[in-house]
Each structure stands twice: as C-alpha cells, then as structure tokens.
Design goal:
Layout (H helix, E strand, L loop, with lengths): L2 H4 L2 E5 L6 H16 L3 E5 L28 E6 L19 E5 L10 E4 L6 H10 L7 H14 L11 H12 L4 H9 L4 H13 L1 E3 L4 E6 L1 H7 L7 H8 L6 E9 L2 E8 L5 H6 L4 E2 L3 E7 L2 H11 L1 H13 L1
Parallel strand pairs: 1-2, 1-3, 3-4, 4-5, 7-8
Antiparallel strand pairs: 6-7, 8-9, 9-11, 10-11
Helix pairs in contact: 2-3, 2-4, 3-4, 4-5, 4-6
C-alpha cells in the first residue's frame, strides 16, 4: 500500500478500551514498518482492562512522544468513529491519515480508508498488507496477528461457511511461527478466582425478555467495588448466555459510575445488534456491538429492552410465516 511507504515515520492509533484485535493489529503493523526502516509509535488511550492484553500495555504510549513529527503519517486502527481514539491522537489531527477497519458502520473519517466489513478481524487486513509485497510476517508479527484473529472470532466460533480465507490466513501465520495453543492460553488462562465468582452472579441475574429471545444481565457499582476490573472478562459470560435455548441476542449492562453505563450486545445470527447500538450512538459488528449511555441502571435497562422491540417483532413475523 503506497501510503505505508510514503512517510519516514508513522503514528499508529487504536481505539479506547482496546481488545486483542486492536492491540495485535497495531503492534504487528508497527513491527513491519520498523522492519522497512520506518519510525513507528503505537498509541492507545487505554485502559488495558482486559486480562488477555494487560501484558502489552507497556508497548504503547498514551500520546505521541514530543517533538511531534510533521512529516509522519497517521494510521487509525479498528475505529469506526474518530471519537473512539480518545486522547491518543491529540496533536496529530493535521497529519495525512489512513483508516484500517472492518466495521461497516461509522462516520467515514480518514483521508484514505482500507475498510473491509467482511473481514472477521482487522488483523486479517494488516496481514494482507504485510503479505502484499510478497513477504510473510515475522514470527512475532504472526503471533500478534493470530492472537487478534482468535480474539475477534471467539477462537473461530463466530465464523461460518464464508470463513475459509480466515482459516487460510491462520494457516500461514502458524507456518510463520504463531501458536494456536499460546493464543488460546492468553485468551482463556490467568483468570482470577474472583472473575469466576462474578461470572456466577451475572449468570444468576440474567433475565429473559420477548419470550426468552433476549437475555439481559448487569453489573453494578457494588460489583465493581467487590471484584474490580475482573468484570471486563465478559467473553465467557456471552458464550454461556448465547447457548440458552431460544435466545437470539444478549445484553450486559455495566454501571461505570453514577449516571453512566456501558452496554455490550451479542447476537446469535438474526438480530443486527450493530443497528441497535447505532440507535444510541454506539457501533460494532452485526453480531457484536456496544455503546455508552447516560443514566442509572434501571433507566438504561428499560431503554435497552425497548430498543429490541422492532427486531423481535420482525422475528415473530418471520417465525409465524414459517
């Protein structure tokens, strides 16, 4: 890609509250650029609250190191909206920019855009860039790319019959030195006992709506005080909620502070939760999305339940026809 050869230096920015796909994409791209003789800084506003990415926090800067380079390019990773980078890009607004993303929704920011909504992870796009000149990722880059691919696909659980290219890419990464065993251990291991206890509480609280098609659970400020950041370990919770018979979608509401909540959505197949999230200014993928909302838990919960009414009515109509 011409943009990534044009400048002597690059700032690589990811979204707030990074995940494995964002982190793996940023660090792999940074490594590849450095191998090509470029200066590259990886920037993130954090926080690195997910257990599986905590070890990578030291490799990121919260903002660009001064003095800022005016001859650099800005690469924005995994961000459907410019606001999602937070303060990490402060001072870099005037630089020529490239967005690398796989979210269909968004605000269309960036001068150049490499956006492929069918890609299961941004790491797939970064891998394609690395391989575009006929080379292959280094062993470290392959490890980072496989980690990101595995985290965004739920270790390939979210892929369907259209996922053959992702497996082909994974095969090339393994050939380059990546280990699926290590990726799984990073994703699933090292969890504190408190996270398993909290998981039990959140499962116990799950309540069904729309005849059991929607499940909602929640985490309170008291939970934050008792369990700390382990509440961010949510992948297993979503997995278990989505295995319940008849469930089409699940939502988990977290009270972040007084008057403010975050909400995560998951869908089995037929409900577009990105569209639901977009109604509140959020975003994500068709089967996984999220948002921030002002309000207390009861108020936010009522809004979320109501936001699924149209989707559930459509499903009722489809099922009645069948």
């Amino acid at each position: 890609m011409a943009f990534l050869g044009r400048y002597p230096a690059y700032y690589i920015v990811g979204h707030k509250e990074p995940d494995g796909d964002c982190v793996g994409s940023q660090l792999a791209l940074q490594s590849w650029l450095k191998r090509r003789g470029k200066e590259a800084q990886a920037l993130s506003a954090g926080p690195f609250t997910r257990v599986e990415i905590a070890a990578y926090e030291s490799r990121f800067m919260p903002k660009a190191r001064p003095p800022l380079r005016s001859d650099a390019g800005l690469v924005i990773i995994d961000c459907s909206a410019a606001s999602r980078v937070g303060d990490a890009a402060e001072g870099l607004e005037g630089l020529p920019s490239l967005v690398i993303d796989h979210h269909a929704a968004g605000d269309g920011h960036g001068e150049l855009r490499f956006v492929v909504s069918s890609a299961p992870a941004v790491t797939c796009l970064v891998q394609a860039i690395i391989e575009s000149d006929g080379s292959e990722p280094s062993a470290e880059e392959a490890e980072l790319l496989l980690f990101g691919l595995c985290t965004d696909t739920g270790f390939f659980r979210h892929l369907d019959e259209r996922g053959s290219e992702a497996f082909a890419q994974a095969s090339r990464l393994i050939r380059a030195g990546a280990s699926p065993k290590r990726a799984f251990a990073m994703m699933s291991g090292g969890k504190p006992l408190a996270s398993r206890k909290l998981l039990g509480e959140l499962l116990y609280r799950a309540e069904p709506y729309y005849g059991g098609r929607l499940l909602i659970s929640y985490m309170t400020l008291d939970d934050h005080a008792r369990y700390g950041l382990v509440g961010r370990d949510s992948d297993m919770l979503y997995q278990l909620l989505m295995t319940v018979e008849g469930v089409e979608a699940a939502a988990v509401i977290r009270q972040e502070k007084a008057g403010e909540c975050t909400v995560g959505f998951r869908s089995k197949e037929r409900v577009d939760v990105a569209a639901v999230a977009a109604g509140f200014g959020g975003g994500g993928h068709r089967l996984a999305a999220g948002l921030h909302l002002k309000g207390e838990m009861a108020e936010v919960k009522a809004l979320i339940i109501a936001s699924f009414e149209e989707s559930m009515r459509i499903l009722d109509g489809l099922d009645n026809k069948a």
